[in-house]
Design a protein that fits this description.
By secondary structure, this protein is of the alpha/beta class. The chain has a single domain, classed as Tetrahydropterin Synthase, Chain A (2-Layer Sandwich), CATH 3.30.479.10. The chain has helices at 51-65, 78-84, 98-111, and strands spanning 2-14, 27-39, 69-73, 89-92, 116-124, 127-131. Strand 5 (116-124) and strand 6 form a beta hairpin.
Length: 135
């Protein structure tokens, strides 16, 4: 089995609803995303997937949709105020946890036909959440 990993960085703000702790307040992260692709075969160039193409597909989407935005639950009371101020927000049906962000990126990459094995979203240098489908 072959595997390649592309690392992507982006910044975001969020807060968690129904949470008792510091993450209940708006705060930000400098996130790192690891995108693992996996395949039993390589293409005619002996490449699983071109890193530049992976960057173009996923990083461009992350930059457009998530980077420097407030990621919030769609029912967060901050949403109307931020929208009124024309602040950039991305709305989730769930709490915008690192786990939810990993799933969102996974689903997007999969929808583009990428052979995704796992997505890891690092909120800090020592903490990440991951998503992959059940084997």
């Amino acid at each position: 089995m072959y595997r390649v990993t592309k690392e992507i960085h982006f910044c975001y703000g969020h807060r968690l609803m129904n949470y008792n702790g510091p993450c209940m307040h708006p705060h930000g992260h400098n996130a790192k995303v690891d995108i693992d692709l996996e395949s039993e075969t390589l293409d005619k160039r002996h490449i699983l997937y071109e890193f530049g193409d992976l960057k173009e597909i996923v990083k461009d989407w992350i930059d457009r949709e998530l980077d420097h935005k407030m990621l919030l639950h769609k029912n967060d009371p901050l949403v109307p105020a931020l929208q009124k101020l024309d602040e950039p927000v991305y709305l989730f049906d769930t709490n915008p946890t690192a786990e939810a962000i990993a799933r969102l990126i996974y689903d997007y990459a999969k929808s583009k036909g990428l052979p995704v094995r796992e997505i890891r979203v690092w909120e800090t240098h020592s903490s990440y959440a991951a998503y992959r489908e059940k084997a």
